[in-house]
Specification:
By secondary structure, the chain is an all-alpha fold. The chain is built from eight helices and no strands. It has one domain.
Amino acid sequence: MAVRPSGNPKSKYVISKRLDDFFMDIHRVGMFILRFFKEAFSPPYEFKEIVNQCYHIGLRSLSLVSLTGLITGIVFTNQSRPSLDAFGATSWLPSLVSIALIRALAPLVTALIVAGKVGSNIGAELGSMRVTEQIDAMEVSATNPFKFLVTTRILATTIMVPVLVMYTGFVGMMGSFLNVHQNEETSFLAFFKNAFSSILFMDIYASVIKSICFGFTIGVAGCYQGYYAQKGTQGVGRAANLAVVLSMYFIFIEEITIVQLFNYIRIILQ
Protein backbone atom coordinates (compact mmCIF):
# COMPACT_ATOMS: atom_id res chain seq x y z
CA MET A 1 0.00 0.00 0.00
CA ALA A 2 1.44 3.36 -1.08
CA VAL A 3 2.02 5.97 1.63
CA ARG A 4 0.81 9.48 0.77
CA PRO A 5 3.13 12.36 1.59
CA SER A 6 2.03 14.30 4.66
CA GLY A 7 0.91 17.91 4.32
CA ASN A 8 -0.25 19.91 1.34
CA PRO A 9 2.65 21.27 -0.78
CA LYS A 10 0.42 24.00 -2.21
CA SER A 11 -0.59 25.33 1.22
CA LYS A 12 3.05 25.29 2.36
CA TYR A 13 3.98 27.30 -0.72
CA VAL A 14 1.24 29.86 0.01
CA ILE A 15 2.38 30.25 3.64
CA SER A 16 6.00 30.61 2.56
CA LYS A 17 5.07 33.24 -0.03
CA ARG A 18 3.07 35.23 2.50
CA LEU A 19 5.97 35.18 4.95
CA ASP A 20 8.33 36.34 2.21
CA ASP A 21 5.95 39.16 1.28
CA PHE A 22 5.58 40.16 4.94
CA PHE A 23 9.32 40.46 5.56
CA MET A 24 9.79 42.15 2.20
CA ASP A 25 7.19 44.77 3.18
CA ILE A 26 9.00 45.37 6.48
CA HIS A 27 12.25 45.86 4.58
CA ARG A 28 10.63 48.26 2.13
CA VAL A 29 9.03 50.30 4.92
CA GLY A 30 12.37 50.51 6.73
CA MET A 31 14.15 51.68 3.58
CA PHE A 32 11.27 54.11 2.91
CA ILE A 33 11.69 55.71 6.35
CA LEU A 34 15.49 55.85 6.01
CA ARG A 35 15.12 57.54 2.64
CA PHE A 36 12.73 60.07 4.17
CA PHE A 37 15.27 61.11 6.81
CA LYS A 38 17.98 61.31 4.16
CA GLU A 39 15.86 63.54 1.90
CA ALA A 40 14.50 65.64 4.78
CA PHE A 41 17.95 66.77 5.93
CA SER A 42 19.58 67.23 2.52
CA PRO A 43 19.14 70.29 0.26
CA PRO A 44 17.28 71.59 -1.63
CA TYR A 45 14.47 72.09 0.88
CA GLU A 46 10.89 72.39 -0.31
CA PHE A 47 9.75 74.97 2.26
CA LYS A 48 6.99 76.35 0.05
CA GLU A 49 5.46 72.91 -0.53
CA ILE A 50 5.73 72.03 3.18
CA VAL A 51 3.82 75.20 4.11
CA ASN A 52 1.27 74.43 1.40
CA GLN A 53 0.73 70.91 2.72
CA CYS A 54 0.46 72.17 6.31
CA TYR A 55 -2.23 74.59 5.20
CA HIS A 56 -4.22 71.92 3.37
CA ILE A 57 -3.89 69.37 6.18
CA GLY A 58 -5.07 71.88 8.79
CA LEU A 59 -7.89 73.13 6.59
CA ARG A 60 -9.18 69.63 5.79
CA SER A 61 -9.30 68.64 9.44
CA LEU A 62 -10.30 71.89 11.16
CA SER A 63 -14.10 71.66 10.93
CA LEU A 64 -14.31 68.01 12.00
CA VAL A 65 -11.71 68.48 14.75
CA SER A 66 -13.61 71.49 16.10
CA LEU A 67 -16.93 69.65 16.20
CA THR A 68 -15.44 66.46 17.67
CA GLY A 69 -13.43 68.33 20.31
CA LEU A 70 -16.45 70.33 21.44
CA ILE A 71 -18.68 67.26 21.65
CA THR A 72 -15.96 65.26 23.43
CA GLY A 73 -15.63 67.89 26.14
CA ILE A 74 -19.40 68.15 26.67
CA VAL A 75 -20.08 64.41 26.62
CA PHE A 76 -17.15 63.49 28.89
CA THR A 77 -18.22 66.13 31.41
CA ASN A 78 -21.81 64.86 31.36
CA GLN A 79 -20.72 61.25 31.80
CA SER A 80 -18.31 62.07 34.65
CA ARG A 81 -20.70 64.27 36.66
CA PRO A 82 -22.91 61.47 38.14
CA SER A 83 -19.88 59.53 39.42
CA LEU A 84 -18.35 62.57 41.09
CA ASP A 85 -21.72 63.78 42.36
CA ALA A 86 -22.17 60.50 44.26
CA PHE A 87 -19.13 61.43 46.37
CA GLY A 88 -19.95 65.15 46.50
CA ALA A 89 -16.89 65.97 44.42
CA THR A 90 -18.32 67.78 41.41
CA SER A 91 -15.76 70.54 42.01
CA TRP A 92 -13.16 68.11 40.64
CA LEU A 93 -14.82 68.07 37.20
CA PRO A 94 -12.50 70.67 35.62
CA SER A 95 -9.40 68.81 36.80
CA LEU A 96 -10.74 65.45 35.66
CA VAL A 97 -11.66 66.72 32.22
CA SER A 98 -8.36 68.55 31.70
CA ILE A 99 -6.31 65.49 32.68
CA ALA A 100 -8.36 63.22 30.41
CA LEU A 101 -8.18 65.59 27.44
CA ILE A 102 -4.51 66.46 27.66
CA ARG A 103 -3.22 63.00 28.52
CA ALA A 104 -5.33 60.85 26.22
CA LEU A 105 -8.47 62.12 24.50
CA ALA A 106 -7.13 65.10 22.55
CA PRO A 107 -4.10 63.33 20.99
CA LEU A 108 -5.96 60.10 20.24
CA VAL A 109 -9.17 61.64 18.87
CA THR A 110 -7.26 64.15 16.73
CA ALA A 111 -4.94 61.48 15.34
CA LEU A 112 -7.84 59.21 14.38
CA ILE A 113 -9.62 62.10 12.63
CA VAL A 114 -6.50 63.13 10.72
CA ALA A 115 -5.83 59.50 9.79
CA GLY A 116 -9.32 59.22 8.32
CA LYS A 117 -9.38 62.59 6.57
CA VAL A 118 -5.77 63.27 5.63
CA GLY A 119 -4.22 59.79 5.54
CA SER A 120 -6.78 58.50 3.06
CA ASN A 121 -6.42 61.64 0.95
CA ILE A 122 -2.63 61.29 0.79
CA GLY A 123 -2.88 57.60 -0.13
CA ALA A 124 -5.44 58.26 -2.85
CA GLU A 125 -3.60 61.32 -4.21
CA LEU A 126 -0.20 59.65 -4.50
CA GLY A 127 -1.79 56.39 -5.66
CA SER A 128 -3.56 58.25 -8.46
CA MET A 129 -0.30 59.90 -9.46
CA ARG A 130 1.45 56.53 -9.50
CA VAL A 131 -1.31 54.87 -11.54
CA THR A 132 -1.40 57.68 -14.11
CA GLU A 133 2.42 57.58 -14.30
CA GLN A 134 2.84 61.19 -13.13
CA ILE A 135 5.51 60.08 -10.64
CA ASP A 136 7.38 58.27 -13.41
CA ALA A 137 7.21 61.42 -15.53
CA MET A 138 8.72 63.45 -12.67
CA GLU A 139 11.60 60.98 -12.40
CA VAL A 140 12.25 61.17 -16.15
CA SER A 141 12.29 64.99 -16.03
CA ALA A 142 15.14 64.94 -13.45
CA THR A 143 12.80 65.96 -10.60
CA ASN A 144 13.00 64.17 -7.26
CA PRO A 145 9.38 63.05 -6.70
CA PHE A 146 10.17 61.50 -3.31
CA LYS A 147 11.39 64.79 -1.85
CA PHE A 148 8.60 66.87 -3.38
CA LEU A 149 5.67 64.48 -2.80
CA VAL A 150 6.61 62.27 0.15
CA THR A 151 9.02 64.23 2.35
CA THR A 152 6.86 67.36 2.35
CA ARG A 153 3.70 65.47 3.30
CA ILE A 154 5.31 63.50 6.12
CA LEU A 155 6.85 66.69 7.55
CA ALA A 156 3.51 68.47 7.24
CA THR A 157 1.58 65.78 9.13
CA THR A 158 4.31 65.63 11.79
CA ILE A 159 4.05 69.40 12.29
CA MET A 160 0.29 69.85 12.02
CA VAL A 161 -0.97 66.99 14.21
CA PRO A 162 0.53 68.51 17.42
CA VAL A 163 -0.97 71.88 16.47
CA LEU A 164 -4.39 70.29 15.91
CA VAL A 165 -4.07 68.38 19.19
CA MET A 166 -3.57 71.64 21.12
CA TYR A 167 -6.54 73.12 19.31
CA THR A 168 -8.67 70.05 20.09
CA GLY A 169 -7.72 70.27 23.76
CA PHE A 170 -8.71 73.95 23.87
CA VAL A 171 -12.05 73.35 22.13
CA GLY A 172 -12.75 70.35 24.38
CA MET A 173 -12.05 72.44 27.48
CA MET A 174 -14.40 75.15 26.20
CA GLY A 175 -17.11 72.55 25.67
CA SER A 176 -16.57 71.27 29.21
CA PHE A 177 -16.69 74.83 30.58
CA LEU A 178 -20.03 75.51 28.86
CA ASN A 179 -21.47 72.36 30.41
CA VAL A 180 -20.09 73.08 33.89
CA HIS A 181 -21.15 76.72 33.73
CA GLN A 182 -24.68 75.73 32.74
CA ASN A 183 -25.05 73.23 35.60
CA GLU A 184 -22.87 74.62 38.42
CA GLU A 185 -22.61 78.28 37.30
CA THR A 186 -18.82 78.13 37.62
CA SER A 187 -16.99 81.22 36.38
CA PHE A 188 -14.49 81.12 33.53
CA LEU A 189 -11.48 81.92 35.73
CA ALA A 190 -12.46 79.45 38.46
CA PHE A 191 -12.98 76.67 35.92
CA PHE A 192 -9.60 77.04 34.22
CA LYS A 193 -7.79 77.63 37.51
CA ASN A 194 -9.07 74.28 38.78
CA ALA A 195 -8.49 72.63 35.40
CA PHE A 196 -4.79 73.49 35.17
CA SER A 197 -4.02 72.98 38.86
CA SER A 198 -3.66 69.23 38.25
CA ILE A 199 -1.74 69.42 34.96
CA LEU A 200 2.00 68.74 35.11
CA PHE A 201 4.66 69.47 32.52
CA MET A 202 5.08 65.71 32.18
CA ASP A 203 1.50 65.48 30.89
CA ILE A 204 2.20 68.15 28.27
CA TYR A 205 5.47 66.49 27.22
CA ALA A 206 3.72 63.13 26.82
CA SER A 207 0.93 64.69 24.77
CA VAL A 208 3.38 66.48 22.45
CA ILE A 209 5.52 63.38 21.93
CA LYS A 210 2.46 61.26 21.19
CA SER A 211 1.20 63.87 18.74
CA ILE A 212 4.51 63.94 16.87
CA CYS A 213 4.61 60.14 16.67
CA PHE A 214 1.00 60.00 15.49
CA GLY A 215 1.59 62.63 12.80
CA PHE A 216 4.72 60.88 11.55
CA THR A 217 2.89 57.53 11.43
CA ILE A 218 -0.04 58.98 9.47
CA GLY A 219 2.30 60.59 6.96
CA VAL A 220 4.43 57.49 6.48
CA ALA A 221 1.45 55.15 6.11
CA GLY A 222 -0.36 57.38 3.62
CA CYS A 223 2.71 58.19 1.53
CA TYR A 224 4.03 54.61 1.50
CA GLN A 225 0.74 53.11 0.37
CA GLY A 226 0.21 55.78 -2.28
CA TYR A 227 3.79 55.89 -3.55
CA TYR A 228 3.89 52.12 -4.09
CA ALA A 229 0.29 51.71 -5.25
CA GLN A 230 -0.22 48.98 -7.81
CA LYS A 231 -1.36 49.67 -11.34
CA GLY A 232 -5.07 50.00 -12.02
CA THR A 233 -7.98 51.86 -10.49
CA GLN A 234 -8.30 49.34 -7.66
CA GLY A 235 -4.82 50.21 -6.51
CA VAL A 236 -5.88 53.77 -5.65
CA GLY A 237 -8.78 52.63 -3.47
CA ARG A 238 -6.63 49.98 -1.82
CA ALA A 239 -3.90 52.53 -1.07
CA ALA A 240 -6.41 54.93 0.54
CA ASN A 241 -8.00 52.15 2.59
CA LEU A 242 -4.70 50.67 3.81
CA ALA A 243 -3.40 54.13 4.69
CA VAL A 244 -6.28 54.62 7.14
CA VAL A 245 -6.28 51.09 8.55
CA LEU A 246 -2.51 50.92 9.12
CA SER A 247 -2.39 54.44 10.56
CA MET A 248 -5.07 53.66 13.14
CA TYR A 249 -3.51 50.28 13.96
CA PHE A 250 -0.09 51.79 14.70
CA ILE A 251 -1.62 54.79 16.49
CA PHE A 252 -3.18 52.47 19.07
CA ILE A 253 0.09 50.59 19.48
CA GLU A 254 2.01 53.85 19.97
CA GLU A 255 -0.62 55.10 22.41
CA ILE A 256 -0.22 52.03 24.63
CA THR A 257 3.58 52.10 24.40
CA ILE A 258 4.01 55.80 25.18
CA VAL A 259 1.49 55.71 28.04
CA GLN A 260 3.33 52.79 29.66
CA LEU A 261 6.68 54.51 29.15
CA PHE A 262 5.59 57.77 30.80
CA ASN A 263 3.86 55.94 33.63
CA TYR A 264 7.17 54.19 34.29
CA ILE A 265 8.96 57.57 34.22
CA ARG A 266 6.44 59.03 36.68
CA ILE A 267 7.08 56.14 39.07
CA ILE A 268 10.83 56.70 38.87
CA LEU A 269 10.52 60.46 39.48
CA GLN A 270 8.23 60.09 42.49
